[in-house]
Write a structure and sequence with these properties.
The chain is about 25% helix and about 25% strand. It has a nine-stranded mixed sheet. The protein is an alpha/beta fold and about 230 residues long. The structure holds iron/sulfur cluster (SF4).
């Protein structure tokens, strides 16, 4: 409970993606990612450069994206959330890549406050979470970081959110689902068009209908919220 975690920002908004889209949520964005997706829209969260470490107060007051982060304990996170967002019952752990860190104490502490915890992850490091954490796996294939999905994580997955920009992304997804069908057969699959680009949306609609998958538009980008 007292091991500090690198956090880029904590804020309240509406979840914009996947099965909880539209739900008021507290986002905790962790700093650090070694996957390296070329189209990543949070590249500022990749590097853990000590020159970017700032005070907790600075991070908690942050209102726009930057690579600044602070080291903050789960206990301090809980105190901040209780003081500012007590009414919100859904918490999203995101990044960066949150699987780089042991998040079990934080998840358990949040659940003790009657919060539901969701993690959004590429699954490229072993997940350290509570048993009740809702796991959204966003598979990343052949990225520059050469990271592979940790197979043990697949038994924890509740939802797949696949970023789709081109037909080869769908081929990768189908190969992955077929290979790990024993883990994923009951998991809802969401197709998320990269950057809400019209060509990607068109592809996702057609693939969703063809495969009985679901469409996840990035609602927060459409309505221009954080
Ligand atoms: S895993 Fe997520 S944070 Fe990391 S590079 Fe890919 S999209 Fe960005």
């Amino acid at each position: 409970m007292n091991t500090p975690l690198p956090v880029n920002e904590i804020f309240a908004t509406l979840q914009g993606e996947g099965s909880f889209s539209g739900k008021p949520s507290i986002f905790i964005r962790f700093q650090g990612c070694d996957v390296g997706c070329s189209w990543c829209d949070t590249k500022h969260s990749w590097n853990l450069n000590s020159k970017s470490e700032v005070t907790i107060d600075t991070i908690l007051k942050k209102e726009s994206s930057s690579s600044n982060y602070c080291l903050i304990t789960p206990k301090q996170i809980i105190a901040y959330i209780e003081a500012n967002f007590k009414q919100i019952k859904h918490v999203v752990l995101t990044g960066g890549e949150p699987s780089l860190y042991n998040l079990q104490p934080l998840c358990l502490a949040l659940e003790s406050l009657d919060k539901q915890v969701q993690i959004e992850t590429s699954g490229t490091s072993p997940l350290q979470i509570s048993p009740n954490t809702w796991v959204v796996l966003s598979p990343k294939f052949d990225m520059p970081g050469k990271k592979k999905i940790v197979i043990e994580n697949l038994s924890l997955v509740n939802e797949i959110k696949m970023p789709v920009g081109k037909p080869s992304d769908m081929l990768n997804l189908h190969k992955f689902i077929n290979e790990y069908n024993h883990f994923l057969k009951d998991v809802e699959i969401y197709l998320q068009p990269l950057s809400n680009a019209p060509s990607a949306i068109k592809l996702c609609i057609s693939e969703a209908i063809k495969n009985n998958f679901r469409l996840s538009l990035q609602l927060h980008k459409i309505i221009n919220i954080r």
